[in-house]
From TrEMBL:
Protein name: MBL fold metallo-hydrolase
Domain Metallo-beta-lactamase: 12-191
Pfam families linked: Lactamase_B
Keyword Cell wall biogenesis/degradation annotated: no
SUPFAM superfamilies xrefs: Metallo-hydrolase/oxidoreductase (SSF56281)
Cofactor: Zn(2+)
Gene3D superfamilies in the cross-refs: Ribonuclease Z/Hydroxyacylglutathione hydrolase-like
PANTHER family linked: HYDROXYACYLGLUTATHIONE HYDROLASE GLOC
Keyword annotations of the record: Hydrolase, Metal-binding, Zinc
Native species: Metabacillus halosaccharovorans
Amino acid sequence: MKWRQLPLGPLQTNCYLYSNEQKECLVIDPGGDGNKLISILQQQQLKPIAILLTHAHFDHIGAVDDVRKQWNIPVYVHKNEKDWLSDPSKNGSQLFMAGAVSVSDPDELIKGEGRLEIGSFVLEVYETPGHSPGSVSYYAKEADVVFSGDALFAGSIGRTDLPGGNHEQLIKSIHNKLLILPEETIVLSGHGPDTSIEQEMETNPFLNGF
C-alpha cells in the first residue's frame, strides 16, 4: 500500500491518495482543485474506488463532486455530518468565503467505529470528534498510517471554535483513540507535514500534562 499527499484548495488542505498494487485507490479529503486532482490521478494511472471524508468542512470537500462524477464512486462521511456537504452554513464556507461550497449528499454513512472494507482496502474507523461532531480518523494498520483529518497535527491540534467544536472532547479523542496506536504510526493530518504518534506524545504542547 502506498500513500501520497496533495495540498489542494483554498486552505491547501491535504488530500491523500491511498493506493494498492493494482493501482486502485481511496481518495481521502479532496478539498479542491478538482481538475488538478483528476489530472494527477489519470497521470498516475490510479483508479479511485471511493472517497472518504474525515469530516465535512468546506476545505475538505471542494472536489468531491468532480471526482465522484468522473469515476462514479461513493462518498463516505460520518452520520453526524450527513447534511453538511450541501449546507454552506454547516460546512463553514458561509463563514469563511465569498462563495459558498455545496456538493451532493454522501452515498454512505459511517455510523460508528469499526472495520471498514472497501475492495482490498481494510481500515479501522475511529470517532475523533472535537474539531467537528462527525470527525473520524482512518487507521490503516497495513501501512502504519492514520489519516487524522483536523484532529491532530504536527505539534498542534484542530481548532475548536467552529460550530460543533469542543476542546475538551477533542483532547479526549486524541488521547483515547489516536495516542493508543503504535508509536511508529505515521500521522497524516489535514494540514501541514506528516508526523508520528511517538513524536506527538513526546513534543506536542497541547497534549502534555493531560
